[in-house]
Amino acid sequence: MDILPVEIFASIAQYLSIDELVTCCSICKSWREIFGHDLLWRSRCDQSLAEYLRKTDSIVEPHFVSLLPDSSTLSPIGEWRLSYMRQIHLWENWRLGRCVRQQFDSSESAHPQCTFLTDDLVLRIYGNSVGVWDVYKDPSDLSEPMCLFPQWDVDLCQMFGKDKVVVVQNIAVLVFSYEVHSTMWPLDFVFFFNEPEKRPEKYVEDMAMPVLKEDESYSIRFAVVGNVFVGCQKNEQIMHVWNLETGQKLKEEILSTNVKCSIKELYHSKTSQDILVDACEENGSFYNFHVYNVNRLEFLPFRSRHKLYGIISKKCCIHGDYIAIRLDFNLYIYNYKTCKLINIFKKVVADPQVLNDLFVFIESPNLIDFRSFNMLFACDPSAPDKDRFLTRLNTQRFSVIGGKFYIYDKSIKETVSSGDSDAGSTGWRDLRSKRGEKSVLEYFERKVWHIHKKRGPVKTKSRVFWYRETANVVANKSCTRVISSNLTGHLSGEEQFWLHTFW
């Protein structure tokens, strides 16, 4: 076997399960060398996750400890096999609900939005300000490192490239250089996306603000794909395409249709350089869907036209080669590369979301009878005839964490005494009832699941997300940290933030 090239064994390993691959490694020294080769294990790992876990110490007990050979005659475990072991340890922490919880200081602003800038930096967006927390060890407030326009709220703040941060405030787009140890990040440039060039001024306070009509304020639609920004003002046909690295306007793209349309939404793909463009015809009844590629700066051949009959909001998502479009109670799945409709689902009552390359949605068997149990489904667009039934639940809400786990909220009613303390309870208390009388406590039980490629849905023991109805859960890219929030007081509206570390 030693004379065969490792590529042959890599081809064989494609047909082996992880358990079988580990068994091969335990046969003898030569097999350990061959079946422990990096080429065989690299494809089993999440490439973006491997580097982060290798450099970051685990703080959750039991800590990850790399196995050392029992004998000095054995060679060390290969780096990519170690990466896979770290990854499995992380998912085991999720499955068993092992994590370290830390509480953040409550914000003085009402209901700030929290998200991750990087795996270790948390953004707290409130109005026209952005605060940054460094959560690598203990949450430490880095105050407000960016000077922004005071007139407009922040619509987006995210990192692109290696050390650049883009902030969108209405039609203004600001690009900063992220510096780890700096309390103020330098501003590279600013452009207003409906103008032909970026502004020459170095500071926002020196810039003349454009005058917007009342109906133009807060009516923008935009998408950031890699280092490209695409923006448009609502009810217009023009898309403004900019290079975020240079601040150069690349193109003004006019939506080409046979009838007059206005752009309503832009949906960007996380797996390609494509954007789904949702445009409404002038009569308001028909919607047209197009796909724009920011590399080629042109529309792809895909076209789809649908009539919206009811008042139910529409929702779309684009992932891989596929598009999911929900209109009224119908969900349409397209392969936009081949321009083919591959499936239609009826009685869909929740917007589609992407989870492990699957489109996940909720179907209701009886739209009239609200007492009926809804069903959570997952559609694999590459195999549309093999839909997966995930669970039956009596709710119309679910959410995805980090693209790997999903939560559904199960509505539960319990009769409790209104005079009891509700400290640490998982729901709303009816404050209108008289003290001492029995009242109904209604809350949402948040269950965390993971979809296994072969076994289907796998329930985890993570009970750390049992919060009130208004709670939100956001994960970083590596799924090693999660930010959640819940209201601490029913009348005061104070919000509490928690950091959950799973590594």
Task: Give a written overview of the molecule.
The chain has 503 residues and is mainly β. The chain has 4 domains: 6-96, no CATH class; 108-207 and 216-241; 255-342, no CATH class; 347-414 and 440-469, Lipocalin (Beta Barrel), CATH 2.40.128. It is built from 6 helices and 33 strands. It has helices at 6-13, 18-25, 29-35, 38-42, 47-55, 79-96, and strands spanning 100-103, 113-116, 121-126, 129-134, 140-141, 156-160, 164-169, 172-177, 187-192, 220-225, 228-233, 238-243, 248-254, 261-268, 274-281, 286-293, 298-307, 315-319, 322-327, 330-335, 340-345, 348-355, 358-363, 374-379, 388-393, 398-401, 405-417, 427-428, 438-452, 456-459, 472-475, 481-487, 495-501. A hairpin with a 2-residue loop joins strand 19 (322-327) and strand 20. Helix 5 crosses helix 6. It is globular. The relative contact order is 0.10. Residues 411-446 and 463-470 have low confidence and may be disordered. InterPro entries: F-box-like_dom_sf, F-box_dom. This is F-box domain-containing protein. Residues 1-44 form the F-box domain. Pfam families: F-box-like.
